[in-house]
Design goal:
By secondary structure, the chain is an alpha+beta fold. The chain has helices at residues 6-16, 20-29, 34-45, 83-86, 89-105, 110-129, 167-180, 192-203, 213-231, 246-252, 276-288; strands spanning 59-66, 72-80, 134-142, 145-150, 156-164, 237-238, 241-245, 255-264. Among the domains are: 6-54, Ubiquitin-associated (UBA) domain (Helicase, Ruva Protein, domain 3, Orthogonal Bundle), CATH 1.10.8; 59-156, Tetrahydropterin Synthase, Chain A (2-Layer Sandwich), CATH 3.30.479.
Length: 289
Amino acid sequence: MAAISASLVKELRERTGLGMMECKKALAEADGSIDLAIENLRKASGLKAEKKAGRTAAEGVVAVKVADDNSYAVVVEVNSETDFAARDAGFLAFADKVVAAAFAAKNEDVAALMAAGLEDDRQALVQKIGENIGVRRVSVVEGGVIGAYVHSNSRIAVLAKLEGGSEEVAKDVAMHVAAVNPRVVNPADMPEEEVAKEKDIIKAQPDMEGKPENIVEKMMVGRINKFLKENSLTEQAFVKDPEVTVGQLVKKAGATIASFVRMEVGEGIEKEEADFAAEVAAQVEASRK
């Protein structure tokens, strides 16, 4: 029997959209032949397309589950190719199953969760819907007081963790994060590379040209401080009451903000622009051969 390398498994996954374990098994049964593995998979499961996983899955939903005492929570992102599929009852049920499994296992490892029983459900859903379906990421938050907020269309979800305070205040902070999308909790948390990048942008602005170095530095300090204020959660004006900052809100409640996790469906995924006319033409041409 030929050795089944990770690269072979990866290629089969990309061509079929199926899970790692099924691809490894199919390759083993086909003695390492990808083409034979695909043929066998199609015979066994009615695989609808070889390249489901090659199609961009940038739609979908986010889902959260919070412990009754608000001391532990998980948030997950499950992707589909189209918004239409993301509204399918079977897809939503699968997303619920994923978040429940992650919650029960307290595990952020997507591969481990899928191998523990979710992969068969995902494969069945791929066959039923005919789209590339995937669990993209899982985040676990523990300790403190955790508040959750999910936007009404299930495309944005936030977990906010406070030290002290109440569930209500934590939920308010989570809602603010969903709406305003801060980068960090406090100004001091901003990564140095982000500050350096912003400084380069500021220096390149037209009104900096020709000014003495000391004037440039003074202007730089002011603009960097403004950048940090605008992108730090504690310094932002609270969306429900712009007269106070989020930091002042939680301080009044006897709390501090420990951390937050914000997930938005498809963020960071480069979407393909589909040329539907060309796609139809290609399908017609293929049917003539």
